[in-house]
Amino acid sequence: MGNAATTAAADQSALLKVETQGAVLTIGLNRPAKRNALNDGIILAIGDCFSHIPDSIGAVVIHGIGDHFSSGLDLSELTEHDATEGLRHSQMWHRVFDKVQYCRVPVIAALKGAVIGGGLELACAAHIRVTEPSAYFALPEGQRGIFVGGGGSVRLPRLIGVARMTDMMLTGRVYSATEGASYGFAQYLTEEGAALDKAMELAAKVASNAPLTNFAVLQALPLIAEANPQTGLLMESLMATVAQSDKEAKLRIRAFLDRKTAKVKPG
C-alpha cells in the first residue's frame, strides 16, 4: 500500500516541474508530448501545489514546458464520464482554479503556443498574463459538442466580454497573441521566447510589495469592482485604513518621504 501511494505521488509530481528562485515559485506544466493537455492527475497536482505555498514565497509563475502553455482538457478522459461524473469533474476543476485565483500571493501566467480550452481557463485564473507571439487563444468546445467546465464562462467574459467569448465558442475563432494582448487575454506581449523571463521579472517585483497590499489587490479589489458603488466605496475605505495602519506601510511611506525610494516616472 505504501509503495502504491509513493508511486502515485511520484507520478503526480512528474506532471509538474516546480522550482524556487528567491521569493518566486515556478510551476511548469510538464506534459510536453501532449501539448500540456490537462488530465485529472495534473489538475490535482496543481491543486496540491497551490494548497502548500511556502511562507517564504511572494509570487508564483505558472508556465508550460515545451512549445505550448496548454492545449486544454485531455479529451481521452472526458469520454469516460456520465452526467453525474461530469458535474463532479467540472466542480473539481473549479476548486483547483479557485486555489489559483484566490492564492495568497500574485500568480503570473507565461503563455506561448496553444492556450486553448481548459488551458485558457487556467490562464484566466492567474492575476497577470504575459504572452509571446507564438501564443494563440481558442475555445474549441463548441465544435466538439461540449461546454467550458473550468470556470471559463465566469472568468473569461470579465476579461474580454461576453460577445467576444460567444463568437469564439460559436465559430471556433482563434485569436493571435497580438490580438490577445489588445483584447484583454493578456496584459503583456513580449518577443518570442521571452514570456517566462518577463513573468519572472514581474513576479520578483510584485513579491517585493507589502504583503497586505498584495492581499488587498488580489482579494478585495475584485469584490469592490463588482459591488454596489456605495458598498464598494465603504470596502475601499476599510481596506485603505487597514493597509495604511500596517507597520510595513508606515516604513515604506517614511522611506519615500526621506527620499530613499524613487519617484514614479514614465517607463
TrEMBL record:
Residues of the signal peptide: none
A GO term for molecular function: catalytic activity
Annotated transmembrane regions: none
SUPFAM superfamilies per record: ClpP/crotonase
Gene3D superfamilies registered for this protein in UniProt: 2-enoyl-CoA Hydratase, Chain A, domain 1 (3.90.226.10), Lyase 2-enoyl-coa Hydratase, Chain A, domain 2 (1.10.12.10)
A Pfam family matched in the record: ECH_1
Cited NCBIfam families: PRK08150.1
Family, as annotated: Belongs to the enoyl-CoA hydratase/isomerase family.
UniProt-recorded name of the protein: Vanillin synthase /trans-feruloyl-CoA hydratase
